Automatic annotation (TrEMBL):
It comes from Scopus umbretta. It comes from the Eukaryota. The gene is Hacl1. This is HACL1 lyase. GO terms for molecular function: lyase activity; magnesium ion binding; thiamine pyrophosphate binding. Residues 4-117 form the Thiamine pyrophosphate enzyme N-terminal TPP-binding domain.
Length: 293
């Protein structure tokens, strides 16, 4: 039984539990959008690739499973670069599938020809072009796995135009199963004990809740920690709601004072970047101790 490249792409995405695809159809990716809808993936047509890429990355942030952005070659790919960079920097899983010129037309001035794989490497965790139709399922599985494992981000898959309607026998295709959820890692017990001791001996501890805590759905455990230990806490903008702002221990209204006087900072899913003044004086104490989770 023969299967086309477009069907292989759609079936492989479905096998990886991909539910949403955003994009703008055109040469050579129209058939991919049609095939995706045929297997039950929800396709949302957009008016600009940048908006499509942001929408797909928002799905990744909200669900933990990457949304897919489908773009045409050249300008379509370029318009999506902002969304790729945004997803990677914000740790949002995203898959971008871009059409490109036929393999036998490379370097010949093909329609909207552009070095997309090379350009994508700066903004993606993975930027790759399948070498054949047979490996498309494995490449898509790797892209999905890479987008959600470790520090989540964007992955780009380049599809030559001649791959879309090219057919291959199913028996020669290397089908793969859905990738497993990201492995759960834990800190060394000695490090946990040391952190607990530092917190227990602090006089003015401050818990800072970041978007990593929100992304990992740790709200119940964090609320329990706040209530049991009576820790004052400060949410970063992307962590609003992990513990409600109307909780009596929320010090958002006295943010500067709380940061300046804390002798121990506990970072949960946060980094000492510009939002937190890099953890440096005069916003923080010179001798502040930091526990980062």
């Amino acid at each position: 039984e023969a299967v086309s490249g477009a069907q292989l792409i759609a079936e492989s995405l479905k096998a990886q539990n991909i539910e949403y695809m955003f994009g703008i159809v055109g040469i050579p990716v129209t058939e991919i959008a049609i095939a995706a809808q045929a297997v039950g993936i929800k396709y949302v047509g957009m008016r600009n690739e940048q908006a499509a890429c942001y929408a797909a990355s928002a799905v990744g942030y909200l669900t933990g499973r990457p949304g897919v952005c489908l773009v045409v070659s050249g300008p379509g790919f370029l318009h999506a670069l902002g969304g790729m960079a945004n997803a990677t920097m914000n740790c949002w899983p995203l898959i971008v599938i871009g059409g490109s010129s036929d393999r036998n037309q490379e370097t010949m001035g093909a329609f909207q020809e552009f070095p997309q794989v090379e350009a994508g490497r700066l903004y993606n965790k993975l930027s790759v072009r399948p070498s054949s139709l047979e490996v498309i399922p494995a490449v898509i599985e790797k892209a999905v796995r890479t987008s959600i494992y470790g520090r989540p981000g964007s992955c780009y898959i380049d599809i030559p135009g001649d791959f879309v309607n090219l057919q291959v026998n199913k028996s020669s295709v290397k089908y793969v199963q859905c990738c497993l959820p990201p492995p759960i890692s834990t800190a060394e017990l000695s490090a946990v004990s040391k952190a607990a001791s530092i917190i227990a001996h602090s006089k003015q501890p401050l818990l800072i809740i970041g978007k990593g805590a929100a992304y990992s759905h740790a709200e119940n455990n964090i609320r329990k920690l706040v209530d049991l230990c009576g820790l004052p806490f400060l949410p970063t903008p992307m962590a609003k709601g992990v513990v409600p702002d109307n909780h009596p221990n929320c010090v958002a209204a006295a943010r500067s004072t709380a940061l300046q006087h804390a002798d121990v900072i506990i970072l949960l899913g946060a980094r000492l970047n510009w939002i937190l003044h890099f953890g440096l004086p005069p916003r923080f104490r010179q001798d502040v101790k930091v526990v980062q989770v």
